[in-house]
Every structure is written in C-alpha cells, then in structure tokens.
Design brief:
The protein is of the alpha+beta class. It is built from 15 helices and six strands. The chain is 70% helix and 9% strand. It is elongated and about 95 Å long.
Length: 433
C-alpha cells in the first residue's frame, strides 16, 4: 500500500461526495454519467495505491486498473456525445468497439506480448469498428458521424504498426489516448461556450490523453517519473473540479432564467417585461420609431378554472402561451404578468404609418392564436381576449402612464363585453378613448 497516495484519494473522495450531493439536489442525466465515470477513476486510483508486489496479483491489478481507465473514458465519451445519435444504436456501437480494446488492454496487463494475438485483436477491432460505424451512420442526421470511420482507422492502423515494431505498451495505451482526446473534443463542442468549468474539463482530458500517449517514453526515461506522477494525478482533479464548476454554472444560469421567466408558461415575467419595455422605449427614442404596448386579458378563464379545476386551467394557459409565442414577431416580447393576463411589447414600428394599420397585424395574430382550440382531458376549450393598446410616443412618452393607459383600455373593453350581447371587433375596441 502506497500511503503517500492516501491524501490524494481522500481529496478525490471529497470532491466526488460534493458532486453526488449537488446531483441529488439538482438531478441531471449528464451528471449521473460524470459521477459513474469519476467513480471508476477513483477505483483505479485505489487499485494503483494498493498495488501488490510483482507477481500474479500485480498482473491482475494492472489489468483492472487499465480497464477501469477504459470504462471511465467510455462513460465520459457517452456523456459528452449522447445527443449525436439515438441511444440504443450508440450503446451497441460503443459495446462492439469496447470488446477488442478491452482485450488488447487485458493482454498487455497480463504480459502476453504476442504479435500474432495483438494483430488479431487489431484486425478484429478495425473490421468490427468500421462495420458498426457504418451501421450507426444510418441513424445519424445527414453530415454527422463521418468522423467515426476516420476514428477507427486512426486507432487500429497505428496499433497494428506499434505491435509490428514490438512496442506493445504504446499499442495498449494508444486507444486510451484516442478515447480521451475524442472525449475532450466532444466536451469542447457540447458544453456552453463561456464556461470556466468547460475549460478545466477540456484541458483535463487533453492532458489525460497526452499522458497516455507519452507513457511509453516516460517509462523508458526514469528521471521523469516524479513529474509524470504529478501530472497523472493533476488531470483527475482538474476534470472533477471542472465538472463541479459546470454544474454550479448551470445552476446559476437556471436561477437567473427562473428569476426572469414565469414558471408555468416559460414566458418572460413582469420583471423581464419591465426591462424589455424600457429597452424598447429607449430604442424608439433613439431611432424615431414607435413602441406598442398590448395588454391582453382572457375572457371566461375563471369559469374554466372553477368548473374544470386549476390543473386544466394551467394546461390551457400553457397552450395559449405557446400559441401566442408562435404568433408574435421575432423582435417583440410576450410576457405573462400573472393569472390570465399577458402583455406584448411590439418594437420598431414605423412612425409614418397610421396607428390603426400599424397594430392591426399584431391584433390579428393574437386573435388567430386565441381561436385555436385546445383539447385538454377530453374538453375542447377556446377563449377570447380583451385587448388594450397604448402607443409610444403618440399616447404618452411616460413609461408608467403608457402601461396604465393600456391597462385601462383593456378593462374598458372587458366591461363592454360584459354589458353587450354582441361586442364590436377587437380592432374597434382597442382604440376607444
């Protein structure tokens, strides 16, 4: 037992425990894979620390350690690229390719340095890997996955060459180099661009791959053993800390998103709307354009809530939010203020166009969105809405007064709907002064 490695094992165990508890509080599928992969790395470190003296048990420990590295790398690769292909074909592809690599590592760990055996493993790996890559490509989107064929050639052809020249250690560690380098590339592609955790993860996996690539050279130059051991341990902590940072960054982003969005519909909330309105008015002031504020209140929604229940009412709000979101222009902002009230900020409207025709398109899109029936729990539900409109700068240049005018005109239309059997059109009502 190498007791000098106990502090490193304790530190890694602590980081894994932190990752586990963060994963319990904020479960994500990717974190589950990260945790399992890091557990195999931890198990490898335990095996390495407990290496027995030379003999059969040491050979067995070497085989276990090499395969733990390989299993961990495969899990990390799956976690980094799981969205590229359908899950089942991708799993079968990894399983088919794992068998020859594991056989190669096991043969080396047991000291079976046989050119014939390793050539057979390399040939089998190339044929099986290329065939499985072609099958997996049939499930991929056009233009994706061609690199799988290249990866097979870049893995097994060099291994054949290394075996032919008697470099069995290099042949065994080369697929680990390819595996961890490919994992670094996928994490680089799939993790958020501006992420410090991503930087740590990618650097960690690139370093890991280079450690595997240079292992044969280091083993033949004893003077570099100490530096190699330090680097060997460094990337484990770098990757683990990077994954913790990514998880914390994702949680911060999630908290920021929920702070500005409605939890039920996913639309911007009141706080987000206030920022958007202020920005739109500022833009109109600078560009000489108009900003329209459209306040929408659903008619009869309370009756649906009372008669069919709040669960159906919530589902109806979600459907209406989706329809409205698809109906508005890209630069406009649709927000939910609460209950059955929505508000639309239409920006960049030309100052030369008559007001009525200016917002007619927005009113028509809202009407079409509300006209779509929603089939929920066996009920076909359709609602109308009362709309109030205020225009900047035609009605007022004051932001607070603009909101008040839109709100007053919306409630004025709503009262008219209650008092009249036949209400006028939406476009006529929103301009009642």
């Amino acid at each position: 037992m190498n007791y000098l490695l106990v502090p490193d094992l304790a530190a890694m165990a602590l980081l894994l425990a932190i990752l586990y508890f963060l994963r319990r509080r904020h479960p994500r599928e990717a974190v589950n894979f990260w945790l399992v992969g890091l557990l195999f790395i931890f198990f490898e470190a335990v095996v390495y620390a407990a290496y027995p003296p030379p003999g059969p048990w040491r050979l067995a420990a070497h085989v276990i350690a090499l395969n733990f590295f390989f299993i961990a790398g495969t899990i990390f690769l799956w976690a980094a690229g799981r969205d590229y292909f359908p899950r089942r074909p991708a799993f079968l592809y990894l399983l088919i390719n794992a068998l020859p690599v594991s056989a190669l590592l096991t043969a080396y760990g047991l000291g079976l340095h046989s050119r014939r055996l390793d050539h057979l493993i390399a040939a089998t790996g190339l044929v099986a890997g290329t065939a499985s890559a072609f099958l997996l490509l049939r499930t991929a989107r056009p233009g994706q996955g061609w690199w799988l064929i290249l990866a097979q050639s870049c893995t097994w052809i060099p291994i054949w060459f290394f075996v032919s020249t008697g470099r069995f250690r290099t042949a065994a560690y080369f697929p680990l180099f390819i595996l961890y380098l490919a994992t670094a590339a996928l994490f680089q592609l799939n993790l958020p661009r501006k992420s410090l955790g991503k930087v740590a993860i990618v650097i960690g996996f690139v370093t890991w791959s280079l450690v595997f690539l240079s292992h044969s050279w280091v083993s033949s130059h004893p003077g570099y053993d100490a530096i190699s051991d330090q680097i060997w341990n460094l990337q484990k902590f770098l990757v683990t800390i990077g994954m913790l940072l990514v998880l914390l960054e994702q949680q911060i982003d999630s908290n920021e998103w929920y702070a500005l969005h409605d939890h039920l519909t996913g639309l911007p909330n009141r706080r987000h709307f206030e920022h958007s309105l202020a920005a739109a008015i500022d833009q109109s002031r600078r560009n000489g354009t108009r900003t329209a504020l459209l306040m929408l209140d659903l008619n009869g929604f309370k009756c649906i809530n009372d008669s069919l229940g709040h669960e159906i009412g919530d589902q109806l709000l979600q459907r209406i939010a989706v329809n409205l979101r698809h109906a508005i222009r890209t630069p406009d902002t649709l927000a939910r203020l609460g209950g059955d009230e929505f508000i639309l900020v239409a920006t960049g409207l030309p100052a030369s166009q008559p007001i009525e025709s200016l917002i007619q398109g927005s009113i028509a899109r809202i009407d079409r969105a509300l006209d779509k029936p929603a089939n929920i729990a066996g009920h076909t539900l359709t609602l109308t809405g009362s709309v109030g409109v205020a225009i900047y700068p035609d009605d007022t240049t004051d932001e607070v007064l603009l909101r008040r005018l839109a709100d007053q005109r919306m409630y004025q239309q709503k009262r008219q709907r209650v008092s009249m059997d036949a209400a006028p059109s939406a476009l006529e009502e929103v301009f009642i002064r």
